[in-house]
Amino acid sequence: MTAPGATAPADLSPGAIEHRVEAADCVRRGGYDVLGTPSVVRLLEEAAMVAVAPLLNPGQNSVGSTVDIVHLRPTVLGQTVTATATVVEVDGRRIVTTVEVVDDVERIAHGRHERFVVDDVDFGTRLAQKAERVAGAGG
Question: What global pTM score does this model have?
Answer without folding.
Answer: 0.89
